[in-house]
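Recall that a protein's primary structure is simply its ordered list of amino acids. Everything else, from secondary elements to tertiary packing, is in principle encoded there. The following example makes that idea concrete.
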Amino acid sequence: MENFFWHNPTAVIFGKDTVKDLAAHLKAANVKGVLLVYGGKGVFKSGAYAQATDMLTKAGITFSEVNDIQPNPLINKVREGIARVKAGGIDAIMPVGGGSVFDTAKAIAAGSCYNGDVWDFFTGKAKITKAMPIYGVLTVSASSSEVNNIAVVSNPESELKTSITSEFIYPKVSVIDPSFQITLPEKQTVYGGVDIIAHVLERVLDGDEGTDLIDAQGYAIIRTMMRVIPELIEDPKNYDARAEYAFAGSFAHCGILSMGRKARGDFSSHRMGHSISLMYGTPHGATLAVIMPAWARYLYEENPVPFARLGEEVFDIFDGSDEEKALEAIEALEDFLKDINAPTTLRELGIKEEDVEKLAANASRGESFGVLSKLEPEDVLEIFKLAY
């Protein structure tokens, strides 16, 4: 196990009817006005918007709004939010939604304390040194943005979907009420669940040999998600399954599973998936369901051990060589994805074969990346072809 420093300052309020508890934290911070950030109809259907605005009104806290945040959030909405903050009367940012809404709020929080264009943070031109405080209400579990220091935003003009990471953009407090997720469409439950599983796989499949304790937590999350996703497809109102799903979502990408690793994990699949989302507007979880098995198939023969361990720990595959167990594990993962009606090929996403090279070029950007194995641009192209 490698040396590490880990600190997560986000306070979590978890459970039914807990939005009202956020008022005490806002008052303690002397917040007088917030920028409410949310997406669309989902926050009204779930009741999250009503509970959040009722809490603010009763606490005497004013609010203005930036809404219509898309599933793959765009930089123009970040800029709109920053303009609202700089107009005055706002002390904190309050996302009410899923990862895209939280990511947008984080970028607004950082950009509001900067005199230049917020995109400078995403290109590395500037470094975040300060941010507005964030107090959020989660309505969709998937990205762990409610408990981490990462924000992913798309800029169509630059043909780039990328991230910022900073200690200053951790939410101060996040409310996680699983009951808000009961009204989610089935596909959103499936795709969010795939994203949660992918966050774990990107740790346990990174080839690190010194993290057995951490990996064990990851395998437990995968097994839990493979149990609760089908349960929620069968019964979307199953609160206990929703609660386990939501807690797994926060645990998967809050930083715990990266402790003691040589790297944070291998996020090659996320990088390639981002290119699909950018170019096609495809839901993030759907891209991961397609790319991650293709990435695994491309690499397992040279790196069989982590895939074989996945087979043993998650799928009870114990017979055969490491290579045989690895391939069987990848096939079992694909079978599970098909069972929950997740796509497993680029064709199912409506992607044209002639666009594969452009996707690969956007993902690689002429450079190598990866932890389990360094992927050159030609490797990325082969993975996209394998996914087709």
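Residues 212-234 form the longest helix (23 residues). The radius of gyration is 20 Å.
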